Amino acid sequence: MTGININNIRIGFVRALPIFFSYVFIGMAYGITMAESGFSWYWSMLISLFVYTGAYQFVLISFLAGGVPMLTLIMTALLMNSRQSFYGLTFLKDFNAMGKRRLFMIHSLTDEIYAIDCTLVGMPDEQRRDVMFWLALFGWFFWNLGTLLGGLTGQLLPFNFEGIDFCMTALFVTIFMDQWERIKDHSPAAAGLAVGGICLFIFGPSSFMLPALIIVSLMLLIFDKYKGRADKNADKKEDRH
Known about the structure:
- The protein has helices at residues 6-16, 20-36, 41-50, 55-66, 70-80, 83-90, 92-96, 102-107, 111-117, 125-153, 166-182, 187-203, 209-240.
- It is mostly helical.
- The longest helix has 32 residues, at 209-240.
- The relative contact order is 0.14.
């Protein structure tokens, strides 16, 4: 990609707006919680800049305050964020084509950014990848802005952030409905809902995400392979005629 395309920046910013309030306010909640736990604002900023894992950052507060061993920190981070590995498989080709931006794209692939990336259809590949980069950069900036504001004001102003995490739920419902209306084939979404519900019942709310992702990914791979074979057979029949 040569030069900076203002139009792509604008598109990336507009697409990032739905996550603005969620990221800024939850980032503030994180910064405030860090401050109330005795950590200076720059510690919360450093963690948000380089860790950037949302829910795990809140868990990390108690870990840091309690002096948890480094191995426990690493393993917990790996388990809590293992779903991003599945997200990344969707964009392997795109990330590899993005050169120096690739590492940042991997670092900034959150749940919300991934969901919005999946809605970027109808663009040339080069433009879509540029928009993906700006979208990720704005999301990362919003989160760190919230962290900075929360860290600086945490001990000065009383805040009650109970229930603010529902912003994330509302965001995902909106994105899901948008995807449902845009795409004619609803079988992947139906499979995700069914498997997610079953895994939630079996494994509970704190452990269902990883097995659900594994099962759905396998189902979609098998479905895609079967569909590819069916399409080839259909093409062969048409060639015979």
